[in-house]
Amino acid sequence: MTTPRQPMTHLEAELAGARTGWVMPVLALSGVVLAVLAASTLLPVPDVARDFRNNTRAADGDGRHATLAWSDLVPEDWDATREMKRLQHAAAGVDDTTAEARVSFARLRDVLDAAPANPALQGRAVRIPGYVVPLDARAKGLTEFLLVPYFGACIHSPPPAANQVIHVQSDRPLALRAMDTVWVAGTMDVVRRTSSVAVSGYRLRAVSAHPYEPAER
User: Fold this and answer.
1) What are the CA-CA distances from residue 81 to residues 56, 75, 123 (Å)?
2) What gap in Å lies between CA 115 and CA 108, rounded to an integer?
3) Distance CA 189, CA 201 (A)
4) Most buried residue among 70, 204, 216, 217 by CB atoms closer than 10 A?
5) 52-76+119-211 in CATH: which number?
6) Cα distance between residue 165 and residue 176, in whole Å
7) Burial of 168 (0-12, 13-18, 19+ CB in 10 A)
8) Which of 166, 76, 161, 53 lies closest to 110 in space, CA to CA?
9) Are 128 and 67 in contact (CB under 8 A)?
10) DSSP code, position 151
11) Residue 126 to residues 63, 66, 199: CA-CA distances in angstroms?
12) Residues 98-137 pLDDT 10s
């Protein structure tokens, strides 16, 4: 014979409700964790630690294009450190929300945007690795983008100096996405251009662009 179940007391009801309230968020959190783990397994993760400004010529050319390091894009006689230090000293202790601070930041940006290019690179057949910043995203691919030396530049952080930004143009659409890491080869022009994203000190007429491989020769 089954014993009739006694109604829960007020205290038992509170404890049961507390257990339910604790279990449901834990189950929901577990679902989120599993989804994140699955996504991290299935989706490619960019190598955000790679900063091409630190690279030397670790790879030879491809027979037609000489490999450049990003330091090659900076003229030997250009040093913005002195001007930047002066501006930083002037801005020290200034409230970031004031008009004075905005003027200092604007002057610092002017120094970076006016950074001179290396005239020796004009007309040279070169290749260089970097990260992609799209300028004309289309369904078929990119025909125009910026190449920058470190992850997040122009997207998650302010643009680098103009002599560290290359405006790449291609006659055919390239299957590239934002922050893809690529080798780009072509003919370099020393041409300054202001886009909606950044000021670039160079233009590279690309003949090829393919995924970056550290040991590529």
Assistant:
1) 21, 14, 29
2) 11
3) 9
4) 204
5) 2.40.50.870
6) 17
7) buried
8) 161
9) yes
10) T
11) 10, 5, 21
12) 777 677 778 888 999 999 999 999 999 999 999 999 998 7
Amino acid of residue 79: D
DSSP symbol at 3 = P
8 Å CB contact between 148 and 160:
yes
3-state secondary structure of 102: helix
- Residue pointed to by tokens 């940006």: 109
User: Over 80: is that where the pLDDT of 162 sits?
Assistant: yes
| Residue whose tokens read 């409230």 | 95
Pairing of strands 166-174, 142-148: antiparallel
Report the chain's terminal Cα–Cα distance, integer Å.
Answer: 84
Tell me the sheet residues that pair with 205.
169, 187
